[in-house]
Design brief:
OB fold (Dihydrolipoamide Acetyltransferase, E2P), 4 domains, 5-stranded mixed β-barrel, alpha+beta, single chain, about 375 residues
């Protein structure tokens, strides 16, 4: 071998060695670990498998149970991201997943919806006694009962949890329009609200209503403390004290679920509507009291005795108070010493307050 040939051979060998060193330093070899994110080029796309060229890491396969996490099937030659489930099987390839990548992309899209206060549709997949479970963009979320709209809120007398769950189950599979109200990717927390999604519409409708206005609604719920009435998509409460001028024991005695009723708006507080049925008719107490005058004498029946006085029934509607200080000219410590239940006595009217439904009497 001539000196010139030997020189050329050495140069070629050195060049190859240098090129390989450069390649190895530019692409340092790493060992795949479970959970790693990796990119690969699609080299084969079968019905139940997608094969990727992972470069220095060989090949990887995405199996059929992982393909459900991609809505668009990647094409041959396309570079996609996947996470490592099994770094290397006994056959020498890696098993990959699209789930983690899809979920991270899902969180990105959900974060954007949250920041933009976007309203979008979801379909509940399950329910528990606290609310509805949904899945969006590969991420599970929760819609609490308290965040359901007035239309879907399960109004149940006595807070029967089994009945609440039964009603929530009827919402599974239905599309509900919601808005994200709490999002925490780190703790895998996603809370949505149907009520919040309707907030602007609700406020718009409320702005058109006025205190004192009489409107018609549908009874959506009957509970111990009152009646819920849906008025054009806005739910209001008729408290038990606003159902009738007479004392009532149960709201069920006056209305039925689904019944249409006329109600009067007595207050609007943000998105809460307070309603009254009894105020649609004249106050019988006021009408009855208008026939009475301060200073005149009336007969009354003792219906209750307390340490501070007694309550006296002077008509079917009006019950008045005679204070202990008005029972006798002499100081009285125990009203029972001079009064008996169901006893009828004559009293003098000291004051009449129609607004507060108060009438004071004296026995002196």
């Amino acid at each position: 071998m001539t000196t010139e040939t030997k020189s050329k051979t050495e140069t070629t060998t050195n060049t190859k060695a240098t090129s390989m060193d450069d390649l190895l330093s530019a692409t340092p070899l790493t060992i795949l670990q479970e959970g790693d994110l990796i990119q690969g080029e699609v080299i084969k796309s079968l019905k139940h498998q997608i094969w990727l060229d992972l470069g220095v890491h060989g090949t990887g396969v995405i199996t059929s149970n992982e393909l459900e996490y991609t809505t668009v099937r990647p094409e041959i030659g396309e570079v996609i991201s996947a996470s490592v489930i099994e770094p290397e099987t006994k056959y020498g390839y890696a098993v990959l997943s699209l789930k983690k990548v899809a979920k991270e992309k899902g969180w990105d899209r959900l974060t954007e919806k949250f920041e933009n206060k976007e309203v979008f549709g979801v379909t509940p997949i399950d329910a528990n006694k606290g609310g509805l479970i949904v899945e969006m963009e590969g991420v599970k979320g929760f819609l609490p009962v308290s965040q359901l709209s007035a239309e879907n809120y399960p109004r149940v007398s006595g807070a029967d949890k089994d009945e609440i769950l039964s009603r929530l189950n009827k919402l599974i599979g239905r599309v509900l329009m919601v808005r994200i109200i709490d999002l925490d990717r780190k703790n895998n927390k996603l809370i949505i609200s149907e009520k919040e999604a309707q907030k602007e519409l609700t406020q718009s409708k409320l702005s058109k209503l006025k205190v004192g206005e009489v409107i018609r609604g549908i009874v959506t719920g009957i509970v111990d403390f009152g009646i819920f009435v849906n008025v054009d998509g806005i739910e209001g409460l008729v408290h038990i004290s606003e159902i009738s001028w007479k004392r009532i024991d149960s709201p069920n005695e006056h209305v039925r679920i689904g019944e249409e009723v006329d109600v009067k708006i007595i207050s609007i507080d943000q998105d809460k509507l307070s309603l009254s049925i009894k105020q649609l008719t004249p106050d019988p107490w006021v009408e009855e009291a208008s026939k009475l005058k301060v200073g005149e004498k009336v007969d009354g029946k003792i219906v209750r005795i307390t340490p501070f006085g007694a309550f006296v029934q002077i008509s079917e509607i009006i019950e008045a108070l005679v204070h202990v200080s008005e029972l006798s000219e002499e100081p009285i410590k125990d009203p029972r010493k001079i009064l008996k239940l169901n006893e009828i006595k004559q009293f003098k009217i000291l004051s009449i307050d129609p607004e507060q439904h108060k009438l004071s009497l004296s026995l002196k």
